[in-house]
Amino acid sequence: MSSPSEKDCLPEGSDTPAGTASAPADVAHPRSIRSFVMRAGRTTEGQARALAELGPKFVLPLKPQPLDLVATFGRQAPVVFEIGFGMGDATAKIAELLPDTDFIGCEVHEPGVGALLKQIGERGLTNLRIVQDDAVEVLKQMVPEGSLAGVHIFFPDPWHKKKHNKRRLVQPAFVAELVRHLAPGGYLHCATDWEPYAQQMLAVLSAEPQLANTAEGYADKPAYRPLTKFENRGLRLGHGVWDLVFRKRN
Hints:
The chain is of the alpha/beta class. The protein has a single domain, classed as Rossmann fold (3-Layer(aba) Sandwich), CATH 3.40.50.150. Helices cover about 35% and strands about 15% of the residues. Helix 2 (about 45-60) crosses helix 5 and helix 4 (about 90-95) runs parallel beside helix 5.
């Protein structure tokens, strides 16, 4: 459930993602700076079929108007917003584990969207919708303020190089935006296997006055979050994994 890494996304010899321009370091996620870059990838026949057959029902187009969440899912239920679900394995497992919760997942990578749609069909999931677009814009344009029971950000791109740290998703301004869309008591769950990013996440989330940490520092992995292939690969390499779970104050 991660965004692509720098080495997978940047052109050889380049330090800047194609199509972006510089901006002041104190501006969080202006249109010229994104926390992701589009990666090349082949859509399989099965993913393409899922996109064609299930996309019209489960993929929501980006629109500059708040979603009617009850109409979108056909029921009144808690809604969790996930940013960057990768290939969607963990997303599908969580949605299946929590059938009384509805999920909106954002991912820009078409093979990932196709893979999750394929799992939606195979698992018979009805509580999951996808937006194939920039989650920052989806949040601002489509998610009603105060509507979310939770937000999941699992293994976002750590942007390892110091000069790229400004591209990290978890920044004070964006966290404040997330908080505005959380309902009172709603939670923000982040996970990363890059310790410097975990430290930044902890500092940023702890500094947000409307959030309260549910743990003394880092949290134990909640039971609903499965171990992903990405995470298992990191564990095999000896990496640690850090979960952070904060709640919006009532």
